[in-house]
Structures are given as structure tokens and as C-alpha cells.
Amino acid sequence: MISVAPRLARIDVHPIKSLDAVSVAASRIGPSGGLEHDRAWALYSADGRWMNGKRTAAIHLIRASYAPDMSCVTLSAPAGRRAISSAAAPGAAMPAATFPFPHGHESAAAWFSEYFEQPIAVRYSPSGYPDDPEANGPTIVSTASLEAVCDWFPEIALAEARRRFRTSLELDGVPAFWEDQLFGAEKEIVVRFRIGEVDFEGSNPCKRCPVPPRDSRTGEDLIGFQQRFMAQRHAQLPAWSSAARFDHYYRFTTNTRVALTEAGKTLRVGDPLSFE
Question: Which of 17, 87, 90, 123 has the fewest CB atoms within 10 Å, i.e. the most exposed one?
Fold first, then answer.
């Protein structure tokens, strides 16, 4: 039997949906179960759809950097391939601009509109805009799992794997894909666990999208990524992983639910994970 001591090794908050993360030592649970400030801004085009990485690779060229207290964000984008996802001319670099965060979303809309060359609305929600509205909590992965993916794809370093999969919580002290134990063998089976002072319910293995095959800085696709990933995920599925929860093998990391009663509690790097 493999000895494990699961521990929270990393917390990544993504304040603007689809843009750069901020690694923090501690984070409170927000009003709807996600991390405070995680996905607090979301970009929308005029048709009311998200303008995100699933829709356009051009978003990968935007850099977002934050003040240490996260009170403001500076946005910038390089010259060259601004229109990466279209046949338009490359365009000049976008000048860097700084906006208050999180309440400067309306003023930031003009910057994003110029970048995408179409009207963009930036909306702010204290509850965030989770990718999976039925699993409102942070996504979880282990460092060993990310390292295993890097073994499958030697051209991807660990830091780049983190940027591509955009997971909120990272565990160490466990083997690769240990986080598959955090969801049940059937959808109706609930796995309850605690990290530090916060109670969680594991939901499902996360269905991946078109973002992980792309370079997080350039948007360039790694040809054959999805097929190679699925083949390796299937071949290396651990005995503790329930194959019944994998309608396909392009699933990685664990989605969670967090009750509203947990709002305001704090997760800290170093917190242990324990089961009820």
C-alpha cells in the first residue's frame, strides 16, 4: 500500500477568467463556494457569449499582473500576433494599462474592446464565474499528476502544465492521479473530505476543453495533444480510479462542491487533507 500524506502545496487564483493566475499562500472561500476573487471578471462579446480561451486563442497573448494586495491589475499584450485566431493583420502592441480590481471592470472594457477589435463587456461577480456551475468549488490536482503529464509531453514544463490546466488547488504527498479518489464511483456517491478548516464534496473528473493543447503564452496548438493525452490517461488509469466516471479519457483534475456555509473560511498552503 502506498503511504500518503496529502497536503495543500499550492493555491492559484485566476482573477480574470481565461487570463493569468496569481499564486497565493492563503485564500478565503467566497460567497458561492469558489476561492475569493477567482474568475471574478469575465469577458463577454456583444452576443452575450463568454470571450474566453475556448472561443479564441488570441486571449493567450494578454498578460495580466496584479498588485501584491490584488487592488489593481495591469493588462498588456505584445505586437505581432494580436489577431492569432483570425486572418486579420497582426496589429501593434497594446499599451499597458492599469485598472482598479475588482471594481474597475467597466473601465477595463475599453482596453479589451480595442484588443479584440469588437465591443467587449467586462462583468464582475463577487461569486465568480465558475466553469462548472454544478460544481462550484475549486478544482484539485496533485503535483505528481501534473508531472506525469509532463512525462507524456516532454515539451511541456511543470509551470506550463499549471498554466494550461488552470487548477485552483494542488496537492503534494500523494502519487499521480490520487485526486481521482475524491469523486465517487457513481455520480450519486458523494466523497466528503476536508482541507484545513474547509469541507468539500468531490464531484467528477473535469472534462477538458481546447485550452490545454495550446501554449499558454502564444496560443500555438500542440498537434495531436488530445489523442495522446487520452491514450496515456486510459493506459495509466490507477486501480482506484472509477472507469465508469470516464465517458472519455480527456478528463483530468477533480471538480468539487463547497457548501455556502464554508464561505469566509481560509485555505492555507500546508493544510492537510483528511476524509470524514
Answer: 87
Letter string b/e over residues 56-79, b meaning 16 or more CB atoms within 10 A of that residue's CB: bbbbbbbebebeeebeebebbbee
Residue with cell 482598479: 100
Please give the full DSSP string across 43-93, using - where no structure is assigned. Answer: EEETTS-B-STTT-GGGGG-EEEE-TTSSEEEEEE-SS-TTTTSSS---PP
CA 209/CA 251 separation, integer angstroms: 9
Contact call for residues 141 and 208 (beta carbons, < 8 A) = no
Give the up-direction half-sphere exposure of residue 148: CA atoms within 13 A in the CB hemisphere. 20
Residue-wise pLDDT for 237-273, tens only, equals 999 999 999 999 999 999 999 999 999 999 999 999 9
The DSSP code for 19 is: S
Q: How far is CA 209 from the centre of its chain?
A: 11
Domains of the chain: 7-33+130-275 (2.40.33), 41-124 (no CATH)
Residue 106's H or E segment, with its range, is helix 105-116
pLDDT digits (tens, 9 = 90+) for 64-89: 999 999 999 999 998 754 445 444 44
The DSSP H or E segment spanning 164 is helix 158-165
